[in-house]
Design a protein that fits this description.
Low-confidence stretches of chain A: none
Mean pLDDT of chain B: 87
Radius of gyration of chain A: 29 Å
Radius of gyration of chain B: 25 Å
Helix content of chain A: 40-55%
Number of strands of chain B: 20
Strand order of the largest sheet of chain A: 6-7-5-8-9
Number of helices of chain A: 14
Low-confidence stretches of chain B: 459-466
Largest interface: A-B, 58 and 62 residues
Oligomer: heterodimer
Number of domains of chain B: 4
Number of domains of chain A: 4
Structural class of chain A: alpha+beta
CATH superfamily of the largest domain in chain B: P-loop containing nucleotide triphosphate hydrolases
CATH topology of the largest domain in chain A: Trna Endonuclease, Chain: A, domain 1
CATH class of the largest domain in chain A: Alpha Beta
Order of helices and strands of chain A: EEHHHEHHEHEHEEHEEHEEEEEHEHHHEH
CATH topology of the largest domain in chain B: Rossmann fold
Structural class of chain B: alpha/beta
């Protein structure tokens, strides 16, 4: 992530425009290449040496220093330093300081040289110690252990994504407009959303789904409390084939700016996407289902499900019966308390099944939830409790009742 | 029959269900949340909401509160000073909420311990630094003789009495904000910070105590502190307790002349820096000035030179050769005393540590060595400790009697805090604080401004300029 001093943006008529770089710019690609090479060649060298070498490239190549320092920062984020304490040096310091403290408390010196001479006598039998070596375990001396390399083009895309993420750190709520692409990317987006402990409302507007994302306290404060969560969430947005993002950015000066961005910005996804990969839980679910019945097929959730009112949800799984009957399952884990209450409220008056609700045993233990589940006619008909993963014993009766 | 109103805790907020229509406008900060189709309020409103419901005799089901009274027992009897008793009484009279403002060394922790044993509710103590967290942990363990929790700095253990850092509380209060009935905010002037305030907002604790030597903030946000913790209910100033409950002290300001070569470098760097400010029309006196300067200097080669010049002139005024010579003189003058040397930045601290072979304590010091340095300084193994800012606040070093400020931010708060490190009362102790100020530099003017503060006005404080 980039710190505020490394962000490049322009402000025009209340709009904040991140200054993205051209990932195909040969000059920038060459500089990125050079910086990556420096980091790759720096394994085992101290941090200060790495930064000094990197600085030479930053100073000697053309282009805005702020961009090059931003690239350097992103590379540093991928670098691991050896931060283990240097026990030998710590023990030496302990011994030395005990002695120097005794000297300074009990003796008077003609001058500083006299003191230094006495100190060197004390440590004469130790390895020679010059002042500068006394704290040779400070971060600037820490050697590089690993560096996670990447291509120069990918670094420039990461830089552009980091420019947007850097702004989103200063935002309190964002709105996304997405087409129902019915793809795995969308499912991943909702996983990110829940993982980041954010709340959302999904509405449909002009054939697009409008998702407002923020956190519980946003109801009361224009807080940037969830800025980090929203910035992380942006990574999943980049995987969507078509998207529009709108956010209000507010820096310390309290002035608010609008950030508007869509897929035409050209930023490529910066995280791995395992679309062909079938998650373990789905595999397990599939196996369990096949062992019990051939009538139902399960797949990961991949499209919005309309709910009463003007609401939509995005389920975890979707199931199809041989007869063509379709249904979906939404699972609620211990940290989904707010989501579950919302869902029970939405479905309170519903008589037909829209969605099967799976609630974790741990969440059910909460008195408020236990009571809400007890009181919900919908849940008693279309809901089940699970421990780690849903079992067929609790799910099949509900599925069979739908056919 | 309609269901009773239900209150539940959810990620630093309260979810209210089945609220009678007549009450919707009477409960503070209650809002309809269409994301969850429930009413919601910030967690810190818990006490106000419950009080309202009780006042109207409305039955409710409370699953938010996850704490019950705990019989905390003090290991030994404690006799408070008169002003500590006054502070405790004032806090009770203020509805068991509020800020107590006492100078450093006057025993704020003591007041907190008495109140924890009095209130008998699970207590969460918030502190700004890891060092303070460990210090509170030691003191609380000693006084209550039970397991005290630590949350932050790699520790994740909640107990009925737990100490946490503000930073950790901001991250985790949404999960445990309903487990404590008493919230203590040490060095509570930090609380109104943009993020730190959420440690208080996300907690339902009905009883709240703020402790500080200086509640005022330059941004005027102390009103936010009072709304989250309660009004300032007791205040005593440093000169009221000096000589009685605090050690007598003197403040000596030493104006230091730079060496000729350094002076030339300083003037040149300062001119480059000021010319850039003028050319770019940057006013460093404004809040935005610094950000603008950072941004502008990162844009061009000339800007980068100006930034380098800025650092050079700053570095020279912070740690000129003459200042280092003065440090040596003062170390010699106070041979046998317990001295803390304060600097503005880590580089200067390590420079002094390497030159004089002294222990340096900064945020970069690893936990084990940090403990060794602090304990060694307390027990006299080390008579001198060099530090940048980590000892500014709270950390208890009663044996220290001399402070040498080589450089600082220039703020009154920092000055008062650093002075506080050497004021803890001990028999026959006379504390001395030295400020080394580079003549004809910005430091000199900042110092002049700062001297208006109370701490300089004490009869015991004899400011002098050499």
């Amino acid at each position: 992530m980039l710190t505020k001093d490394l962000l490049q943006y322009k402000i025009r008529k209340g709009q904040i425009l991140p200054q993205l770089v051209n990932p195909a710019n040969n000059q920038l690609l060459a500089i990125a290449e050079q910086l990556i090479a420096i980091f790759e060649a720096s394994i085992n060298t101290p941090r200060a040496t790495l930064l000094e070498t990197s600085k030479q490239t930053i100073d000697s190549t053309p282009g805005a220093p702020i961009i090059k320092r931003g690239l350097e920062k992103l590379l540093l984020d991928r670098t691991e330093f050896d931060t283990a304490p240097n026990e030998e040096l710590i023990a030496f310091r302990q011994k030395l300081f005990t002695e120097t403290s005794r000297l300074l408390s009990q003796e008077q010196f003609e001058d500083y040289t006299d003191y230094r001479h006495k100190v060197s006598q004390i440590v004469a039998d130790e390895s020679p110690i010059e002042g500068a070596e006394l704290y040779a375990d400070l971060p600037s001396y820490q050697p590089i252990v690993t560096f996670q390399t990447l291509s120069s083009e990918r670094l420039l895309h990461r830089y552009n994504a980091a420019q947007v993420q850097g702004l989103l750190l200063h935002c309190n709520t964002l709105t996304l407009r997405l087409a129902d692409s019915m793809t795995a990317e969308l499912r991943q987006l909702f996983k990110y959303l829940r993982f980041n402990q954010l709340l959302s409302t999904i509405r449909k507007a002009e054939e697009l789904y409008q998702i407002t994302v923020d956190g519980p306290l946003n109801l009361f404060y224009k807080t940037k409390r969830y800025g980090m969560n929203l910035a992380n969430f942006f990574i999943a947005v980049l995987h969507q084939p078509k998207w529009e993002l709108a956010a209000e950015i507010q820096f310390r000066n309290k002035q608010r700016y609008q950030l508007s961005l869509d897929e035409s910005c050209g930023i490529k996804p910066i995280s791995q996407q395992f679309l062909a990969y079938i998650p373990e839980d789905i595999q397990l679910f599939q196996t369990m289902l096949q062992n019990k019945t051939d009538d139902w097929q399960i797949r990961p959730g991949s499209q919005f499900i309309p709910l009463p009112g003007d609401f939509y949800c995005f389920p975890d799984y979707q199931l199809v019966h041989n007869s063509g009957v379709e249904t979906a399952i939404e699972l609620f884990h211990p940290w989904h308390q707010g989501h579950l209450i919302a869902r029970l409220n939405t479905l309170a008056e519903q008589r037909d099944v829209s969605l099967i609700l799976g609630v974790s045993k741990e969440l059910e233990k909460k008195p408020l939830i236990a009571e809400a589940l007890e009181a919900s006619a919908y849940f008693s008909q279309f809901g089940f409790i699970f421990r780690d993963v849903p079992t067929m014993r609790s799910l099949l009766p509900i599925l069979n009742s739908l056919v | 029959m309609s269901s009773p109103l239900k209150i539940n805790f959810d990620k630093g907020t309260l979810i209210l269900q089945d609220v009678p229509e007549a009450f919707l406008t009477q409960l503070p900060d209650l809002r309809w949340d269409e994301r969850t189709l429930t009413f919601r309020a910030p967690a810190y409103r818990y006490r106000d909401i419950v009080s309202q419901l009780r006042a109207h005799d409305l039955s409710y089901q409370d699953t938010a509160r996850q704490f019950t009274p705990e019989p905390f027992t003090l290991q030994k009897e404690m006799s408070p000073h008169f002003y500590q008793t006054e502070a405790i009484d004032a806090w009770h009279a203020n509805g068991k909420r509020g800020v107590v403002s006492l100078p450093t060394g006057a025993g704020k922790t003591f007041i907190a311990i008495l109140l924890i044993s009095d209130i008998q509710r699970p207590t969460l103590v918030h502190v700004p630094t890891i060092d303070l967290m460990h210090q509170w942990h030691t003191v609380l363990t000693e006084h209550f003789g039970q397991k005290i929790g630590l949350y932050g700095g790699g520790h994740h253990e909640l107990q009925d009495i737990t100490v946490t850092t503000y930073q950790s509380a901001v991250m985790h209060a949404p999960h445990y904000g309903n487990r404590f009935g008493f919230a203590i905010f040490d060095e509570c002037h930090h609380l109104p910070g943009e993020q730190y305030q959420y440690a208080a907002i996300s907690s339902i604790a009905p009883f709240r105590l703020g402790l500080t030597a200086t509640p005022e903030r330059v941004d005027g946000k102390e009103s936010r502190l009072y709304s989250l913790v309660g009004e300032c209910c007791y205040e005593a100033k440093v000169q009221e307790l000096s000589g009685k409950m605090l050690s007598k002290y003197r403040v000596m300001t030493i104006a230091v002349e730079m060496e000729d070569t350094e002076r030339v470098r300083y003037e040149e760097a300062r001119r480059t820096y000021l010319d850039f400010l003028k050319q770019e029309k940057i006013n460093m006196g404004t809040r935005r000035g610094w950000h603008l300067f950072l941004w502008k200097t990162s844009q061009t080669e000339e800007g980068r030179e100006a930034f380098k010049a800025y650092l050079t002139q700053k570095q020279l005024s912070f740690s000129s050769t003459t200042k280092q010579e003065w440090v040596w003189k003062l170390i010699q003058r106070h041979s046998g005393d317990r001295i803390i040397i304060f600097t503005q930045d880590n580089d200067t601290a390590y420079q002094l540590g390497e030159r004089f072979f002294l222990p340096v304590l900064t945020h970069q010091t690893k936990p084990k060595e940090r403990k060794d340095f602090l304990n060694g300084f307390r027990d006299g193994t080390y008579s001198i400790l060099v530090t940048s800012k980590v000892l500014n606040e709270g950390v208890d070093v009663p044996e220290a009697n001399v402070a040498i400020i080589v450089s600082g931010s220039g703020s009154v708060r920092e000055h008062v805090q650093r002075l506080g490190r050497i004021l803890r009362k001990r028999e026959g102790k006379q504390a001395v604080l030295y400020e080394l100020i580079s003549k004809q530099t910005s430091e000199h003017f900042v110092n002049k401004r700062r001297r208006q503060h109370d701490a300089y006005q004490s009869s015991n404080a004899a400011p002098s300029v050499k």
